[in-house]
From TrEMBL:
Coiled coil: none annotated. The gene is thiL. ATP binds at residues 105, 122-123, 149, 220. This is Thiamine-monophosphate kinase. It holds the Pfam family AIRS. Residues 26-141 form the PurM-like N-terminal domain. It comes from Salipaludibacillus keqinensis. It catalyses: thiamine phosphate + ATP = thiamine diphosphate + ADP. SUPFAM superfamilies: PurM C-terminal domain-like, PurM N-terminal domain-like.
Length: 327
C-alpha cells in the first residue's frame, strides 16, 4: 500500500448515520455516547482468505459485504439493533491492489447503509500470504430484552426465518466449476445466499420486542449445529421435522444425502433458528406476516439433555453437530 493514510481517508464514510458518534475515524479511538435504556451488544468475526473464502468463489465486493453480514447476523441473533462497526484488515504484501481493497469496503458500505451502521474505526497491517478481514460490530438492545440460546423448554415450537441449504448448494457448484451448467436465473438466489447473505435483523428485533419466551441462534454453521447449541444451552432435546423443512425445488433431483448435507450441515445461510413457547406461536406468526417476514415451523422441543433428532416419514435419527464446512 503506497499511502495508508490516504487510503483510509478514501474508505472513511463521508457521512454518518448515527448522531451518537462523537468521534469517528481520524483520531486514536472512536467515541460514541450511550443511552441508559439500552445494553450494549458486541460481536467480532474474522474471515481468512483460503479458509473462509477464496477469490474464485467470491467477488471482491461480496467479501466485504459478507464480512459485515456475518457480524450483523450475530447481533440479529441477540435481538439487537446494530449501530457501529470497526474493520481490521491484514493485507498480503502481494496479490491485493488498493483498488481491490476499496471494492471490499464498498461491499461493507452497501450493507452498512442499508442498516444505518457507521464505520467508526479500524486497523491496517500487512501480512505475508493471504488477506485476513476482521469486523467488529457494536449494537444495542433494550435492557433485558436480549435473546439467548438457553431459553428453550419442553413443548416449544422450533422455527426458522427462511430457507436453509442455499449457501452450501451454491458453494458446491462454485467449487466444482458447475455454475455455468446450472440454470443461471434460478441459481442467482443461491449465489446471493452464499455471497451476500441478508442478516435477519428485522426478524431478530421483532422476536425481541414480543412478550413470549424465545431462544435464538443464527445459522452460521448449519441447522444441525445451531439446533444442538440451543438444545445443549437449554438442557432440552430438539426434533427437526424433515418433512416440514422448505426444500428448494432444485434440490429434488439430488439424492437425499446431498439434500441433508446442504440443509442440515451446510451452514452460512444466516437465517435465524429458535424456539418459542407453543401458546405464543400463533401470535408470532401473525406479527411476522404483518411485517412481511417469514417464520416457519420446523420441529419442536422435548424433554431431554441436549440431543437433536431428525424425523423423516415417522422415523427418528439422532443428528450430530458435524458437517462443518469452510470456504
Ligand atoms: P493509530 O496509530 O492511532 O492506531 P491508525 O493509523 O491505525 O492510528 O488509524 C488512524 C485512524 O484510522 C483511526 O481512527 C483508525 O480507527 C482508522 N483506521 C485505521 N485503519 C482502518 C481500516 N482498515 N478501516 C477503517 N478505519 C481504519
Ligand atoms: Mg492503529
Amino acid at each position: 500500500m503506497n499511502n495508508e493514510f490516504d487510503w483510509i481517508q478514501s474508505v472513511s464514510p463521508k457521512k454518518l448515520h448515527q448522531p451518537s458518534v462523537k468521534v469517528g475515524i481520524g483520531d486514536d479511538a472512536a467515541i460514541y455516547s450511550v443511552h441508559s435504556e439500552f445494553d450494549q451488544v458486541v460481536a467480532v468475526d474474522t474471515m481468512v482468505e483460503g479458509i473462509h473464502f477464496t477469490r474464485k468463489t467470491m467477488p471482491i465486493k461480496s467479501i466485504g459485504y459478507k464480512a459485515l453480514a456475518v457480524n450483523l447476523s450475530d447481533l440479529a441473533a441477540m435481538g439487537a439493533i446494530p449501530l457501529y462497526y470497526l474493520v481490521s484488515v491484514a493485507v498480503p504484501k502481494q496479490g491485493w491492489t488498493q483498488e481491490e481493497l476499496s471494492k471490499m469496503y464498498e461491499g461493507m458500505d452497501q450493507l452498512a447503509c442499508k442498516w444505518q451502521v457507521d464505520l467508526i474505526g479500524g486497523d491496517t497491517v500487512s501480512i505475508r500470504d493471504t488477506l485476513v478481514l476482521t469486523v467488529t460490530v457494536i449494537g444495542k438492545v433494550k435492557r433485558d430484552r436480549h435473546l439467548l440460546r438457553s431459553q428453550a423448554e419442553e413443548g416449544d415450537v422450533l422455527f426458522v426465518t427462511g430457507e436453509v441449504g442455499l449457501s452450501a448448494y451454491a458453494l458446491e457448484h462454485l467449487l466444482n466449476d458447475e455454475s455455468p451448467r446450472v440454470d443461471q436465473s434460478s441459481f442467482a438466489r443461491f449465489l446471493k445466499a452464499h455471497q451476500e447473505p441478508e442478516p435477519q435483523l428485522e426478524a431478530g428485533q421483532l422476536l425481541a420486542k414480543g412478550d413470549g419466551r424465545v431462544s435464538l441462534n443464527d445459522v452460521s454453521d448449519g441447522l444441525a449445529h445451531e439446533a444442538k447449541e440451543i438444545a445443549e444451552a437449554s438442557g432440552v432435546n430438539i426434533v427437526i421435522d424433515w418433512d416440514s423443512l422448505l426444500i428448494p425445488q432444485e434440490f429434488n433431483t439430488h439424492p437425499i444425502e446431498k439434500q441433508e448435507d446442504w440443509m442440515l450441515y451446510g451452514g452460512e445461510d444466516f437465517q435465524l433458528v429458535g424456539t418459542v413457547s407453543a401458546h405464543y406461536w400463533n401470535e408470532l406468526v401473525l406479527r411476522f406476516k404483518e411485517h412481511h417476514l417469514l417464520l416457519h415451523k420446523i420441529g419442536r422441543v422435548e424433554k431431554g439433555e441436549g440431543t437433536v433428532f431428525m424425523k423423516r416419514h415417522g422415523t427418528r435419527s439422532i443428528i450430530e453437530k458435524s458437517g462443518y464446512h469452510h470456504f
